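User: Hey, quick favor. My workstation is busy. Could you predict this chain's structure for me?
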Amino acid sequence: MSIIVKPHTVNYYLLAITLSGLFLLALIGFHMIHEIGEVENAFLKSHSDNSKHELQRAVNETLSSANKLADNIAQWDETSQQISDPTYYVYWKKNRLRDVKRIPSYVSEIELYRLNKKTLIVPTNSSLPDTVPDILTFVRTDNNMPFLCVFRPIFIHDSSKEIFGYVGLKIDFLKAMLDLNLFSHNDVTSMIFKNSNTVNPRIIPEDIVNHIQTSELHRNELDQLKNVIYVTFAYTAGLVFLLLAILYWLVLVLFAKPLSQLDQYIRTFKNDKTQEQLPDLNKHFFVYEISNLARSFQDYHLRLEQYQNNLKQLNNELEDRVRHRTRELESTNKELEAFSYSVSHDLRAPLRTIDGFSQVILDDYGQILDDSGKDYLSRVRNSAQHMAKLIDDLLNLSRITRTEFRKSLVNLSSLANSKKDQLLEKLGGKAVPKGKEPEGKKVEVKDIKAEAQTAPKTKAGPQVQ
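Assistant: No problem, here it is.
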């Protein structure tokens, strides 16, 4: 099924292309806004994930640094000396807390414990517990301020695993996090620690990050990138719209109007108007190719009129030649047909004489002829009849171009048997009975079993299969 497309003017297509371009531009704008929204959501999600990972990393780093600091204090020789002789223990604590080179400023308290997990001096006047708790690292809140409590064992020797006592540290957790880590995704000014569980104020390390609340840093880079994209798209859309308007005007002036004039010229030309009746194309077109096309149409029209006159003359001459050649062919065909009939009649006469006299000899003198003589005369008659049949076939072949082709079935087995009988007859063998000849024209089958005449003579006689 073919689809018929109705043609339209150039203005129609120009308007359709312009509207399609504007629609495509609007579609690109909506798609860009959607993609920017998707990118912004993905960026915010990635920023949120990075913020959580950064906070978790800061907590882990703070816990690791606190444990290392407690281990270092536990390895001091003076720490073991204070456990053995706590005479100057209170002075030692105050002095060491002032030594910021060895103990950071975010460590607010330090306490030593004996092997039985009891403090060296009772009361201690410290916010650390009097005994070493089962959980050696935890966070608790005092007046909504989070403090990290770290307890580490003190060994007798560095290589020994025998515990001599314990050391405990109280660390300002948020201050330690800010001193030990750099934050690029979290606002440190809004970082707070909340613990609503008043029954069990101790928080294990795995839950510390869940109690820290902070605001994510606002990334100005995304807003700047969005503004750049929107401004660029606005300028691009305006430029494209301006280019479409200029292109519409140029195509309308440079192509649409000249093509309309050419179309009017061709329509008038199709109505077999003469050169004087055609519109004038000798106008100045702005496009060089269209101007050449207009002049080419005019030259083509002039030459076409000349060609038409010449063609009419040639057609008349050709018709005369065809009629003359037709008469010659008809005369030649008649002569050829007369010659064919004459030749066939001249060839049939000797053959009928040979066949007739052979039949007379067989009828009148057959009683005095032996079997060999009768056989020879039968072969002469068969050959004469076969020659007559060949002449008839040649005549039919000469008329084949003037007759209609007709399809018919041919019994090839019968033809093959006939050929075989002829070969046996030539070789002196006994012929098999002939079958029924096919109707229509007989097809000559040649060279059955590759010329049986060349077969060697044997006592049993020749055989054709």
